[in-house]
Specification:
The complex is a heterodimer of chains A (about 400) and B (about 300). In chain A, the strands form three sheets. Chain A has a seven-stranded mixed beta sheet, sandwiched between helices. In chain A, strands 2-1-3-4-5 form a five-stranded parallel beta sheet, sandwiched between helices. In chain A, strands 11-12 form a two-stranded antiparallel sheet. Helix content of chain A is about 40%, strand content about 20%. Chain A is built from 13 helices and 14 strands. Chain B has one domain (about 15-230). Chain B has helices at about 1-30, 40-60, 65-95, 105-125, 150-175, 175-185, 185-190, 195-225, 230-245, 250-270, 275-290, 300-304; strands at about 130, 140-145, 145-150, 225. In chain B, helix 1 packs parallel to helix 5 and helix 5 packs across helix 6 (about 175-185). The longest helix of chain B has about 30 residues, at about 1-30. The chains are: A alpha/beta (about 400), B mainly alpha (about 300). At the A-B interface, helix 2, strand 7, helix 8, helix 9 and helix 10 of A face helix 1, helix 4, strand 1, helix 9 and helix 10 of B.
Chain lengths: ~400, ~300
């Protein structure tokens, strides 16, 4: 007889406490959710750790800043780290755990277009679908395929390719060697650029290097016999330093008898030292802004914060996406914060609708996604290697 | 024609790198009949050791020691370090499995390979590091008419050939070499003849890994870079070279390496770099169809 009474007492007490919790705040949206998690996904280790490692640090910083500011109505957001190692298969395994857990509300990433395209159907088919905001996936298919889960803060290939071609033509390019690194990102971008060059009757020669290639003598011999005056290399980054060193060794000096335009991962000042200054004078375009290169106090404050958190030299290994990764995390966290809380739960369906409808405040100013999930006004920036830094020349679109 | 010759030179330089690493695959296979999949990563560790020594003396300007001495130190540290690493791998990962099913050491070899790649990535650098070759070796480019090659590339070729000749002499002319060959032929019988098989295996691992370490130094001086992933693709190519030449056969590995380098260079130069590897592996399949034992291998029936 005693036992049921105790249970009844506990039940009454719980209800009472819950009532107090509800009474102390105003309105349903201000309810404190029980548990909120997001995931950071990208190649944090593996062959592309050079772009992933810095992005992860940025996301960790964004989540910690968000939690310091109060989290989601007082609940700190937990960060899961999904290291997909640039493999769609690994991504699917990691995402399966998140799809099954309703407190996982979104993903910052995946970073590689190939990974997005290889795993997005699982995210879309989940109930409710698991949304993501990528900081670097640029293949057009990512947002052109009608997936409601897909968002990105970076500019697209079909903006970057033509902008890259136009830049080289404006600089007086006559014959262009177009190179890709055999990935979904790089091949698609090189195709876009090559098509835009051909449309202006600029002769091109196309070559591919496999990720992990360290000897480029075959291609450099081809570049010399083709008499190219520009080399365009769509690459995530790790191949650039050995490539330009070997160009110089073969007698082609950037800025002197050859010009070089790289993309995204090649907007990285550490390439200058790693190539023993052979990279000096090279150009690179980036589909995201470098916080250290844009004017704006929020971006400058973020750069200071990043250096304080990870050391004064940390920007040299931050990779090209440490700004867009922070920006992507900000949009996702704000969409979660704006979503209604019912019985301590936030639904992923509401996060998706807030991603679609809201305007977000980021280190690069306010950001809004269009119907496809692309940012309106995503810019492409041209940088040049000068001395020991990549210096912004101009914004070419967006 | 001059472009053809230029691609030939490119291919021979790349091929001598393949050959140095292929020798390791073939030496170890010859003795143990196992594929040391971690061998490409031993080459990578050698390159990092060389990069570390170079960076220590060049960047920190510890003492004004001559560049030649730094290069000498790089060779000693990289060959010694890689050699000891190879010996350590054998003791820890392969010896306990020597009498196990043939698949078991293959799996541990893949495990060791992944461990080395991840360890270097996490503890050393996820991005490529610089080997400050400008400060160490002359960056002269040699011209022969229209043909050019950097001095460092030519040195890679010459040193590789010299090492191969020395290894060939070691295996075929010395007492220890005959112990190695005896062990390769029949491990049990060699034990009965009083050969310390464990010692032979350790020395083989040391020599094979030291050669890979030297390949790492030569590569660093040639292309001024080292990264944790560099051993993966090169390891696969070198293994292919060893198979083309006839795995277990030392001269086969040398020629297989050169052949593969030249083939890759010509396929990339004259057909397409997009399909470069397709042609390389097509060549492997063709060789294996016509001569399953490889170009210089003994027919399999002899061994069984």
């Amino acid at each position: 007889m005693a036992q049921p009474r105790i249970f009844a007492l506990i039940a009454v007490a719980t209800v009472g406490l819950a009532a107090c919790g509800g009474g102390s705040t105003t309105g349903a949206a201000a309810n404190k959710p029980d548990k909120v998690q997001i995931a950071a996904e990208g190649p944090f280790t593996g062959d592309q750790a050079s772009i992933g490692a810095g992005a992860l640090k940025a996301i960790q910083l964004a989540v910690s800043d968000f939690n310091k500011a109060g989290g989601v109505n007082g609940t700190p957001v937990g960060l899961l780290i999904w290291d997909d190692q640039h493999s769609a298969q690994t991504a699917q395994t990691l995402q399966a755990a998140g799809i099954a857990d309703p407190t996982v509300l979104g993903i910052v990433g995946p970073m590689n277009s190939g990974v997005v395209l290889g795993s997005v159907t699982g995210l879309q088919a989940a109930t409710p679908p698991l949304p993501f905001v990528s900081e670097s996936a640029s293949n057009t298919k990512v947002t052109d395929s009608g997936w409601s889960v897909a968002h990105r803060v970076n500019a697209r290939d079909d903006a970057q390719g033509p902008a890259d071609a136009a830049f080289m033509i404006a600089q007086g390019a006559k014959k262009v060697e177009v190179m890709d690194a055999k990935s979904d990102y790089s091949t698609a971008l090189a195709d876009q650029t090559e098509a835009a060059l051909k449309a202006k009757s600029i002769p091109t020669q196309r070559d591919s290097v496999k990720a992990g290639t360290t000897d480029f003598s075959t291609i450099i011999t081809k570049i010399k016999s083709f008499n190219a005056d520009w080399v365009y290399f769509a690459d995530e980054g790790p191949e650039a330093a050995p490539f330009v060193s070997q160009l110089k060794q073969a007698g082609l000096t950037i800025g002197n008898n050859i010009n070089f335009l790289g993309t995204d991962g090649e907007e990285d000042s550490s390439i200058i030292t790693k190539s023993q200054s052979a990279y000096d004078g090279a150009y690179a375009t980036n589909i995201t802004a470098d916080p250290a290169g844009v004017s704006g106090s929020a971006a400058a404050a973020y750069v200071t914060e990043y250096k304080t958190a990870y050391g004064p030299d940390s920007l040299s290994s931050a990779g090209p996406f440490y700004g867009s990764a922070y920006e992507a995390a900000q949009t996702l966290l704000q969409a979660i914060k704006n979503s209604p809380v019912n019985n301590g739960k936030i639904s992923r369906a509401d996060v998706i609708s807030h991603l679609a409808s809201d305007t977000f405040t980021t280190i690069f100013g306010s950001v809004k996604f269009n119907a496809k999930g692309d940012v309106t006004g995503g810019g492409i920036y041209v940088y040049q290697a000068k001395g020991n830094a990549m210096v912004v020349l101009k914004q070419v679109s967006g | 024609m001059s472009i053809f010759l230029q691609q030939l030179i490119n291919g021979l330089e790349l091929g001598s790198l393949y050959a140095l690493v292929a020798l390791g695959y073939t030496l170890i296979y010859g003795i143990l009949e196992m594929l040391n999949f971690a061998h490409g990563d031993v080459y990578m560790v050698g390159a990092f050791l060389a990069a570390g020594v170079a960076a220590f003396f060049v960047h920190n300007e510890v003492a004004a020691i001559p560049a030649g001495l730094v290069v000498g130190l790089m060779v000693v540290v990289a060959m010694g370090g890689a050699g000891l690493l190879g010996v350590g791998i054998e003791r820890i990962a392969y010896r306990p499995l020597r009498n196990a099913n043939r698949l078991a050491p293959l799996i541990t070899a893949i495990g060791v390979s992944l461990f080395l790649e991840s360890a270097v990535q996490v503890w050393v650098s996820p991005a490529p590091v610089l080997v400050p070759s400008n400060a160490l070796v002359p960056q002269t480019v040699l011209h022969f008419g229209t043909l050019t090659t950097p001095l460092t590339g030519l040195s890679l070729f010459v040193v590789a050939i010299a090492l191969m000749v020395a290894l060939d002499a070691f295996v075929f002319r010395t007492r220890f070499g005959s112990a190695m060959r005896a062990t390769a032929q029949d491990r049990e019988a060699a034990t009965f003849m009083g050969i310390d098989v464990d010692r032979v295996i350790l020395v083989t691992f040391f020599v094979a890994s030291a050669l890979a370490g030297m390949a790492g130094v030569l590569f660093g001086l040639w292309h001024a870079t080292a990264d944790f992933f560099m051993g993966y693709l090169l390891g696969i190519k070198a293994f292919t070279a060893a198979v083309i030449g006839g795995i277990g056969n030392i001269r086969g590995a040398m020629i297989g390496g050169m052949l593969l380098g030249v083939l890759e260079s010509l396929a990339g130069g004259f057909i397409s770099t997009q399909f470069q590897d397709t042609f390389v592996f097509l060549a492997l399949i063709t060789v294996l169809l016509i001569r399953p034992q490889g170009l210089f291998g003994q027919p399999l029936t002899d061994r069984a």
